[in-house]
């Protein structure tokens, strides 16, 4: 399972760099599928799997925005 997560994370990174999308496009369906297969569709986690997948992707996007903000601000002052 971890190798599948690593592979899809790499795919998300490549599509983000090349095409400008990838995080939500690749990660959300992957997380949803993994949560449903690991916990079953009738469990509490299975019923909230889409919410968990979208929230995880959003949290990762917010983290990356906050992390790269100082770099972006520093580059804009260099011009």
Descriptive notes:
- The chain is 87% helix and 0% strand.
- It has helices at residues 2-19, 23-39, 44-47, 49-78.
- The mean pLDDT is 84.
- With 79 residues, the chain is mainly α.
- The protein has one domain (2-78).
- The termini are far apart.
- The chain has 4 helices and no strands.
Tag the structure with descriptive keywords.
79 residues; mainly alpha; 4 helices
Summarize the model shown:
With 79 residues, the chain is mostly helical. The chain is 87% helix and 0% strand. It has one domain.
Please describe the topology of this protein.
Blueprint: H1 2-19, H2 23-39, H3 44-47, H4 49-78
Helix pairs in contact: 1-2, 2-4
Q: Could you say which overall geometry the principal axes of the C-alpha atoms support?
A: elongated
Instruction: Tell me the series of helices and strands, N- to C-terminal.
Output: HHHH
Mean pLDDT: 84
Radius of gyration: 16 Å
Largest sheet: none
């Amino acid at each position: 399972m971890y190798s599948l997560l690593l592979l899809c994370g790499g795919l998300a990174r490549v599509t983000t760099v090349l095409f400008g999308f990838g995080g939500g496009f690749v990660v959300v369906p992957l997380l949803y599928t993994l949560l449903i297969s690991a916990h079953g569709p009738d469990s509490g986690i299975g019923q909230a799997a889409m919410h968990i997948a979208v929230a995880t992707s959003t949290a990762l996007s917010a983290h990356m925005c906050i992390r790269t903000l100082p770099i972006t601000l520093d580059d804009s002052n260099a011009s």
